[in-house]
Every structure is written in structure tokens, then in C-alpha cells.
Write a structure and sequence with these properties.
alpha+beta, five-stranded mixed β-sheet, 159 residues, two-stranded antiparallel ribbon
């Protein structure tokens, strides 16, 4: 029980941060959105390409990250609202906030009024962005009650 509370406190302390970097990767229409598969997401965010260094002090991984195509860094704080992050993303990737589909560890980030800390976004997190360019179509049973009249009655139509 003591260990569990310590782990929870440690996790909560990681969710409070200022001016930390997170990574947003823009996925094209052809690229698949990660579905939470740990191997796929792990491959995408594994740091340093898996380089391992051996020395007198044991084994350590490289702290360098391999930059991926379409990836940008954003400096945020845990109290930054998702809405504000979406505005920053819009300025870089030219995708309107309402067209942004953001995924973190297989979970969709939807609540724009929530802070990044409350959504579980940690420093160094890899967020995937996909643009939703679908145009809503009117229902098929929708009929215009006023049919098009063109230039009728404007004098532009010869009689």
C-alpha cells in the first residue's frame, strides 16, 4: 500500500511541469493513426534509435531522439490548455483546431478545456496529429424550399 501511494505521488509530480518539450508528428492522409499498439507506438517514440552504450557504470540508452519526418517540438507547461496547444499546432502545420485529431498513446485528446497535465501529457510525449478534411454533406432528404431562380427579375435575363 505504501509503495502504491509513492508511485501515485511520483506520477502526479511528473504531471506538473513548466516550459518542457513535447513532440507533435503530422501524419498525412495515407499514414495510419497509431491505435495504441505498444510496439508501434514504442517504435515511433523510441529515443536514439535504440543506441546502447556500455561502460563501467552499466548499460544506458542514448538520450538523443531521432527526429521523424513531419515532427515538430512544442514548448508547453502542464497548465497549458489543449485548446492553446491546438492554436500553436495550427500556426506550424496550418491545420485549423477543429480539424485536428490528436492521439497520445492510442487515446484521442478531445477536451479542449482540459490542461495537458490533467490529460496525462508528460514532458517528451509524442502526440500524433491527423487533419480531418472531411466536408459535412447535407442530408440526402434535405430539399431547398426555395428553388434557384438564377438572374430572374434582375434585368440580366433577356425576355
Amino acid at each position: 500500500r505504501c509503495v502504491k501511494s509513492k508511485v501515485e505521488a511520483e506520477q502526479e509530480s511528473r504531471l506538473v511541469y513548466k516550459n518542457e518539450v513535447l513532440f507533435v508528428t503530422f501524419l498525412t492522409q495515407d499514414e495510419e493513426m497509431p491505435n495504441g499498439d505498444p510496439d508501434y507506438v514504442g517504435d515511433m517514440i523510441e529515443s536514439g534509435g535504440g543506441q546502447v552504450f556500455r561502460g563501467d557504470y552499466g548499460v544506458r540508452r542514448s538520450t538523443r531522439r531521432k527526429k521523424r519526418r513531419g515532427e515538430r517540438e512544442f514548448v508547453v507547461s502542464s497548465d497549458t490548455l489543449l485548446r492553446d496547444l491546438k492554436v500553436q499546432i495550427m500556426e506550424v502545420f496550418k491545420v485549423a483546431p477543429y480539424d485536428q485529431i490528436l492521439v497520445l498513446n492510442g487515446e484521442y485528446l478531445r477536451d479542449n478545456s482540459q490542461s495537458l497535465g490533467s490529460l496525462g501529457v508528460l514532458p517528451g510525449s509524442a502526440i500524433f496529429l491527423k487533419a480531418d478534411h472531411s466536408v459535412p454533406c447535407p442530408p440526402e432528404d434535405w430539399i431547398n424550399p426555395h428553388p434557384e431562380q438564377g438572374f430572374k427579375g434582375t434585368g440580366l435575363l433577356s425576355s
